[in-house]
Amino acid sequence: MSLALVVTGFALIVLLDLIPLIRKKDGHGIAAFLLLFSPALVLAVLQAVGVEVPGVTVVLWRILHALGLTY
User: Fold this and answer.
1) Least enclosed by CB within 10 Å: which of 1, 8, 18, 33?
2) pLDDT value, residue 57
3) What's the predicted TM-score (pTM) here?
4) Residue 59 — φ and ψ, nearest 5°?
5) CB 45 within 8 A of CB 3
6) CB 3 within 8 A of CB 49
7) pLDDT tens for each residue of 25-55
């Protein structure tokens, strides 16, 4: 049930946000949308099916630390 809601919600987001970008042929907007949308979809589906997903902030901190961007 929760997986169906996640997929429906993300499909609605695509219809409302991505389709207009495609019609405008906004390549940068499409790339930015997909860069944020794809990981969010994957994480939401994994959580919906019950996979234990580590905190996103920990992973982000490790990536930024590896790049030398610390705070």
Assistant:
1) 1
2) 87
3) 0.73
4) -65, -45
5) yes
6) yes
7) 999 999 999 999 999 999 999 999 999 888 8
pLDDT for 70 equals 77
Contact 40, 56 (CB under 8 A): no
- Alpha-carbon distance of 4 to 22, in angstroms, equals 25
Burial 46-60 (b: 16+ CB within 10 A, else e): eeeeeeeeeeeeeee
Ramachandran category for residue 3: left, alpha or beta (phi over 0 → left; psi -120 to 50 → alpha) = alpha
d(Cα 51, Cα 59) in Å, to the nearest integer?
Answer: 16
**What phi, psi does 14 have (nearest 5°)?**
-60, -45
Place of tokens 């930015």: 32
7 vs 42: CA distance, rounded Å:
10
